[in-house]
Amino acid sequence: MSEISSRAAGTAAEGAEDPALARARDGDDAAFARLVEPLRRELHAHCYRMLGSAHDADDALQDALLRAWRGIARFEGRSSLRSWLYTVATRTCLDLIENRGRRALPVDLGPSSDRAVVSDTPLTDVAWLSPYPDAGLGDGPAGPDTRYEQREAVELAFVAALQHLPGNQRAALLLFEVLGFSAAEIATMMDTSTASVNSAMARARKVVAEKVPSHSQQQTLRKIGDARLREIVTGYSSALERGDADALVALLTEDVTWSMPPMAHWYRGLDAVTDFAVRVPLTGCGAWRHIATSANGQPAVGCYLWDDDAGAYPAWAVNVLTLRGEQICEITSFVGAQYFPPFGLPARLP
User: Fold this and answer.
1) Least confident interval from 26-30, 36-40, 162-166, 233-237
2) Which among 60, 66, 69 has a CA at the least distance from the CA of 90?
3) Between 139 and 296, where is the model more confident?
4) Burial class of residue 74, CB neighbours in 10 A (0-12, 13-18, 19+)
5) Is 337 exposed, middle or buried (0-12, 13-18, 19+ CB in 10 A)?
6) Could you say which DSSP state residue 149 is in?
7) Helices 54-71 and 29-51 sit at what angle, rounded to 10 degrees?
8) How far apart are CA 274 and CA 283, in angstroms?
9) How far apart are CA 259 and CA 286, in angstroms?
10) How far apart are CA 76 and CA 239, in angstroms?
11) pLDDT band, very low/low/confident/very high, at 3 (cuts 50, 70, 90)
12) pLDDT the model gives residue 238
């Protein structure tokens, strides 16, 4: 018997001896839930990386686990339960990608604007990338043979770059470089050849290398340190609350960008961003309050805008900050109260 066959047979034997797996195969949904629970968080992150939407990731994971529950009796244990669940989740995501297409940010739709567009209106016919609540994600790599840390692989630049890849290339890259599966394992998971997997990964790496900065946010944040990071986030929030343009500009790089999905217009460079900031959030919106949080492995703030009729500050946008050194080089404002609950942020502030 070959080494691979021996390993597969051993795995199958171990799986057959697992009481929880045996009960799940016999229709015990509680046993199935206990088997799946330790993997639920990482499976959800995988679905988000594939789909670029936390809401779509919710749907995909629910669908994938339903498929897995219905198929658990046919799971023979030739691979690990984790590998099998990733197979089901990946195929579920590929079905959704085929039907829904890719997610976008304003920078994908057209050139930046030189001056503030005060009357900007939401584009409702675009599938927008959404922020990701990263609480519970591990800090390090998912395995010894991976290229990306778990939080690096949900950073905005990385997930946005993935959206420019066909589904099979996304899947191959994520399964290999984020999750540590071998090309042969991925070929089995995706029902293709190892050569096809290697080809898909080569094309995917080229696109990602062109679109993702060489230094990840995780590397930048470790250099800055927690104390300095809190100062930057507090300074950003305070500048908006005080309407202090000088304090805000002091935190920004010369080539800073600011975008606000679902608004189509976006701004690049200190002059354009300053014009937008002065005319819209600093003077044109009203009073702000903020709560610091984390999204996509990056610093973020929940932004609340005063409403006279409500007599409170309702949720307005989740602003995800991208840093270069100790300055903010990108602000992505995800406008919409629907983004707040997954972060555990209140719907309004008094």
Assistant:
1) 26-30
2) 60
3) 296
4) exposed
5) middle
6) B
7) 140
8) 12
9) 19
10) 59
11) very low
12) 98
Closest CA to 75 of 117, 111, 44, 31: 31
pTM given for the model: 0.92
Average pLDDT over residues 18-33: 89
114 within 8 A of 46, measured Cβ to Cβ = no
- Taking the C-alpha atoms of residue 188 and residue 172, their distance in angstroms, rounded to an integer, is 11
* Residues 220 and 328: beta-carbon distance below 8 Å: no
What token pair was written down for 153?
């692989």
Mean pLDDT value across residues 49-54: 97
Residue 63 amino acid letter: D
Determine the 3-state secondary structure of 331 from DSSP. strand
- pLDDT tier at 101, thresholds 50, 70, 90: confident
Q: Which residues contact 285 (CB under 8 A, 6 or more apart)?
A: 305
Note the helical H segments in the chain: 3-17, 19-25, 29-51, 54-71, 81-100, 156-162, 167-173, 183-190, 194-211, 217-224, 226-242, 245-249, 270-279
